[in-house]
# Entry
Amino acid sequence: MARVTRAAVLSLLTALAGLSVGAPARADLSDDAARVARMWSLSGARVARLPPLFVEHGRSRLIAISPPPAGAAGAAADAAGRAGAAGAARAPAVGRAKADDCLTVAFLAPRIVEFTVEPEPAPGDASALGGLVDRLRGREPDDERRVHSAAGAAMITRCGPAREELRRVAVDMLSPRGALDVVVAASSGVLDRVESILPERAFGPVAPRGDPGRPAEPGPLDARVARAARRARAEGALRVVPTDMRASVVGTGQFSVKLSEGCHRVDLMAEVPSATVRRATDIDAEAREAGTGRLLDRDRSDAPDARLDFCLGEPAVVEVPFLGAAGPVKVVLSDAQWSMAPYVPGHFGARARGNLAAALHRRHAPAPRAQPIAEAVGTQGDTLVPVQIEPGRCYFAAAALVRGEMRALRISAELGDRAARDDAGDRSEGAGVAFCSDLEESAALRVAARGNSPVWVLAVWPMD
# Structure
């Protein structure tokens, strides 16, 4: 009896050691699909993996699904790592049935990707077929047959005659794009859920989205105009000049105003009609230079009023088209003006001067009181500009577009083991960063520019 006990213990320890020695855990998409295929294979199912898919938003993919061929269970188990006799012992007769009544398809994507899957309707189901056609044509049907992914995974099971619905499945990407791994299994019963095999993809209850209701009413026009003027003056604006016009019957229009050099904040506010039934007020606008058509700023937010911020290197006529007013109502353009900061160089042109001033204004930097200690010009790519500085003094460096089209602009300042950086943003053509020296006598300024033949200028000012 003692020898039998020792042999049993030795066998158990050997089995545990074999289980503990394996491939390291990985979290990529292919490994997740392999885990699902392995666990379904150990349950006796016939399993196959389809070639990976890449789906983009707005372009539905129709996937043909076929039951795995005979012997697919063993092949999937061998590819997943040869689970061995211990795994077979954990999978009793569930998967050894003669008839495979159920077909299961699992769709796996990265956990941040959202998508829906919709099986093909049964023959003769005209309403469901119409919903599938709508989905493939880009329309949005109201169909409960669709399965939404959760944590990047979706699973569909059909048993008996309903297996025919899985001959083809439409995949629609809700995220911009994503890669998918597809695992297909035929079994005699319902298989384990994906979230039980991949617990890192488990999710809690999802609350319904609900209806947010109508947009908030912005309030009386005169009060909003006065509030915008007070806010601008509190931030240092020299003057605020209002201009008004009446929108068209569909709530559109365009202002054309001559603005001085310097920085401007343009607020567009529309009157709210007194009628009970009316369209919501949501002004969207943009500012462009007349003649050149260069975009200065754009506001497409869901707020009732629009706000545009930009700086001009010289006086110019600016066109401000808008839409979103609730019919032929009064619309006010309120222009808050800040003077051009002194010592902003103008020899690079009006566009560069305005963009340098915008970098100072956006960062709320004090106006420079001296000429720049360093200037540089660069183009596409990453550029390093070393600058000599004084210990114990602070500086402000700005990079601005001179010509071309900018897709991304970044400036960074490195002093020893310290660094600061700033990105221009989507609609800005200037970026600025402040830095101070302790004992350093030099700073490394880096400018990264991406776009269509961009040319930029760098200026560095000493600050008090």
Observations:
- The CA atoms of residues 286 and 294 lie 11 Å apart.
- Residues 2-20 form the longest helix (19 residues).
- The radius of gyration is 32 Å.
